[in-house]
Amino acid sequence: MRNCILVTGGAGFIGSNFVLFLLGDSDIAVLNLDKLTYAGNLHNLDSVKTDPRHQFVQGDICDRELVRSLFEAHQPRGIVHFAAESHVDRSILGPEEFIRTNISGTFALLEESRAYWEQLPETDKKKFRFLHVSTDEVYGSLQPNDPPFTEQNQYAPNSPYAASKAAADHLVRAYHHTYGLPTLASNCSNNYGPFQFPEKLIPLTILNARDRKPIPVYGDGKNVRDWLYVEDHCAALKTVLERGRPGETYNVGGSSEKTNVEVVTTICELVDEFLPDASARPRVELIKFVTDRPGHDRRYAMDANKLQSELGWKPRENFKSGLRKTVEWYLAHEQWLSTVSSGAYREWIEVQYSGR
Ligand code: NAD
Ligand code: DAU
Predict the structure, then answer these.
(1) CA-wise closest residue to 210 among 89, 336, 98, 72
(2) DSSP states of 69-90 as a string?
(3) How far does CA 289 lie from the centroid of its chain?
(4) Which H/E stretch holds residue 274?
(5) 10-67 pLDDT, tens digit each
(6) Whole-structure pTM over 0.90, yes or no?
(7) Which of 16, 232, 301, 333 is geometrically suited to a Cys-Cys bond with 315, CB 3.0 to 4.6 A?
């Protein structure tokens, strides 16, 4: 085996941050397989364009022949699997692609990984790892006074997206239990940071606040999410990949629970600070409460004690410092934002928000 990791979905938000993190922090080579859907963006990887350790392949994780040929040609020592359809609202409007990529795609990767892993020499077999990147949404929704989710919580996914990720998690677990494939799984809370596509709450709010457009908040805005800066998630994943126990699941979170109204208000205040205009109204007045998301989960919170106590990971950013860095990054990357927010993006905003 080579000191190479196959990363799927490495042109998306977290995947591209992970590729940059890995190349910046180690001597590992990265083989990056991504279909480049609307959410994939090669510009996220501009800074490693000339790095010979990074190789990009445009392709679908459901294409088993392609995946097989990549295993054969590159002999990776592991796989970190991000590729997915990731937006809950899109899964409500069109679940089919979520079933295909998130469930069938994960199955295809597991089958091809198993075939590759089974023929490895014993010493390499012990070293190989399949790290599946999943979400807190598989556990369902918490009541206000419930303790955060632990790895022991029962699965109760509520959206087609969450259900597709839960199905994939079960397949990953079964491949360890039945075949002994050295799988690892991580379930993480909401990420934010550079390169997130502006269909998600934080970048959408930054973009609309910058442009003084209405900022849509679903329902009463009191739904709670547990926010984690993306680089902290990347560090957690590297820790799990290197030191996690095969067959185990690790919850990852920022211990940073915020209501959506708190999040968008803080962003408006930060954008006012970075783009001051004494003659204009405060941007918080742009907030517009709109029809709720169907089946909207009320609260998520993650208990990351297992990862902290067993593997020594802890986040470096808090929500205040991470959000300030994030707003600064978006305002400084006008070109990136204008590329991703043209064409198909405008169509999505029309479908999702008009008449809401
Ligand atoms: P994203 O939507 O930004 O990126 C997904 C990437 O996968 C894109 O580059 C896309 O082109 C690629 N992709 C989609 N279908 C593919 C296919 N069939 N074959 C190959 N590539 C394909 O997603 P993200 O927010 O970076 O999330 C990455 C992973 O992390 C997902 O598995 C998601 O469930 C999980 N996750 C996300 C969060 C979050 O807050 N964003 C939190 C926890 C877990
Ligand atoms: O919890 C982890 C999950 O976080 C990941 O698995 C998903 O891939 C990721 O998309 C994210 O899911 P959410 O649905 O929590 O993220 P989103 O940014 O879409 O929404 C965050 C909260 O803000 C949620 O309560 C819905 C609300 N919201 C969202 C949008 C897009 C609004 O109020 N207005 C909006 O316009």
Answers:
(1) 336
(2) HHHHHH--SEEEE--S---HHH
(3) 26
(4) helix 260-274
(5) 999 999 999 999 999 889 999 999 999 999 999 999 999 999 999 999 999 999 999 9
(6) yes
(7) 232
**Which residues' Cβ are closer than 6 Å to ligand 1?**
8-9, 11-15, 34-37, 39-40, 60-62, 82-84, 86, 101, 105, 133-135, 165, 188, 190-191, 197
Residue 7 Cα to ligand 2 midpoint, Å, equals: 24
Residue having the nearest C-alpha atom to atom 11 of ligand 2: 190
Give the long-range contacts of residues 120-123, CB within 8 A, separation 24 or more: 120/1
Q: What is the tens place of the pLDDT at every residue in 265-291? A: 999 999 999 999 999 999 999 999 999
What's the CA gap between 261 and 337, in Å, rounded?
23
Side chain identity at residue 171, one-letter code: L
As a whole number of Å, the end-to-end CA separation of the chain is 53
CA dihedral 188→190→195→198, nearest 10 degrees, is: 140
H or E element that contains 257: strand 257-259
3-state secondary structure of 32: strand
Residues near 272 by beta carbon (within 8 Å), at least 6 away in sequence = 282, 283
CA of 28 to the centre of ligand 2 (A): 32
Owner of token pair 């300030």: 324
Identify the pLDDT of residue 355. Answer: 87
Q: Collapsing DSSP states into helix, strand and coil, what is residue 129? A: strand
